[in-house]
Write a structure and sequence with these properties.
The chain contains 16 helices and 14 strands. The protein is an alpha+beta fold. Bound molecules: flavin-adenine dinucleotide. Its EC number is 1.14.14.9. Pfam families: HpaB (PF03241), HpaB_N (PF11794).
Length: 466
Amino acid sequence: MPAISGNEYIERINQLKTTIWYNGEPLTGEISEHAAFKGAIKSQAALYDLQHDPELIDVMTYTSPKTGNKIGISYQQPKTQDDLIKRSQMIQKWAKTNHGMLGRSPDYMNSILMALSASASLLEGKENCFPENLINFYELAREKDLSFTHTFINPQVNRSPFYLEETDEPIAAKIIDEIDDGLVIKGARLLATQGGMTDEILVISPGGINDPDYAFAFSIPSDTNGLKFICRESFALGDREFNHPLSSRFEEMDAIVVFDKVVVPWDRVFFYKNIQVANSFLSQSAFRPFALHQVINRQIVKLEFIASVTEEIVQSIDISGYGHVHEKMAEIIIAIETMKALLLQAETKAAVDEFGLMRPDLTSLQVASCTFPKIYPRLIEIIQLLGASGMVTIPTESDFESSIRKDLDQYLQSAKHPAKDRVELFRRAWDLTMSPFATRQTQYERFFFGNPSTIASDLYQNYTFN
Ligand SMILES: Cc1cc2nc3c(=O)[nH]c(=O)nc-3n(C[C@H](O)[C@H](O)[C@H](O)COP(=O)(O)OP(=O)(O)OC[C@H]3O[C@@H](n4cnc5c(N)ncnc54)[C@H](O)[C@@H]3O)c2cc1C
């Protein structure tokens, strides 16, 4: 089938009988209508619709080597520099619709699956490894335009390097049996962003494994028997766009994933009970360069949004004459240009790798991924510092519809804006920096690709000094 539309995505997600727990109750009814999910699902559907925009068809899709259908470009295995540039254009096009706020837009996981399947030769001839399953599954996902959540991390029980789980009942998800139908998994994983609102969940060992029961990689449908997504409280505080301009549209859920004797069919198992493979597959595969390539593209779009909101505040209350404001704006510019330069370098230095992929330069992308988690909180702070009391002087749309409108119009106007426009701008800034949604965004950018210190160690240990 060709690349899906937004409606097809929504219908498919609604038809799944995924077990999702929210606020002490299992979700019933259509997930696309649930207050905690509907904003992000609608925004995600809009991404899929772009694949059908006649003017963007060559930006968003390419021709399937198998069926000749037009399919999503994030599934393409790039072989040339041109393919890589097209990949960037597509990622940024999608990210611009949500200002880079949908951290797990489908291109993230599509890129990861593309990269893992291109690296399937690493599994060739190894014990309990099924490279053909990975390749077949990638092709299935690519042709059906499947959406994914994923979970790579064990529950945060004890992070000491000497910890070994010794409970009778598993906490971290592990293999408890092998049966004719497949592997049996019991225990939990965290965290799955967009958990429950995707077709599939991809599960891979986090590395650092010394027990074969924890060594596995597979993908299963979100509504597989025994699989449960336990959601946090939603940070979408309302669905009026004026009041919650970002969270009403881009709040992605994060869920704990529980496997209660989940049977993973054999044809969905990519490897299992192979410690050497579990500890090396992700790092030796094309996973990191292509995951990070998607991430850095999205983060650049997010920085541009931050810059535009900040500059609007500066102009709105006319503070552009102050030297410290220039310094703060310069920090934002430096952040954008640094990330863009690193992306350009990654693409300019791209070379064909052992798997035949045109691989962007990993060091450039790693430097960007070490940089961004540090600069993002600082840029958020800059908006708070420049917005000052404006960040909390933010009446709701209902206030503007009430009899106090005259007061608001008089007292909340700014040098450049009538009151309602000014409040709309500051509500956007609040939802970007101070709302529960905003705080989660900051935590996301700090941690979603792993522990910052581990990422830095990795850069150091693999860097070639001249
Ligand atoms: C909003 C959000 C969304 C996420 N979405 C997903 C998702 O969709 N899928 C997914 O798989 N994961 C997801 N994650 C999880 C993310 O991958 C982890 O947060 C990250 O890997 C860090 O692991 P942790 O949270 O367990 O922190 P921990 O490892 O428990 O770290 C706690 C503290 O201890 C320190 N520490 C722990 N171990 C070490 C070490 N070995 N060396 C040095 N310091 C150490 C850390 O630096 C940190 O300060 C998400 C996280 C967040 C915050």
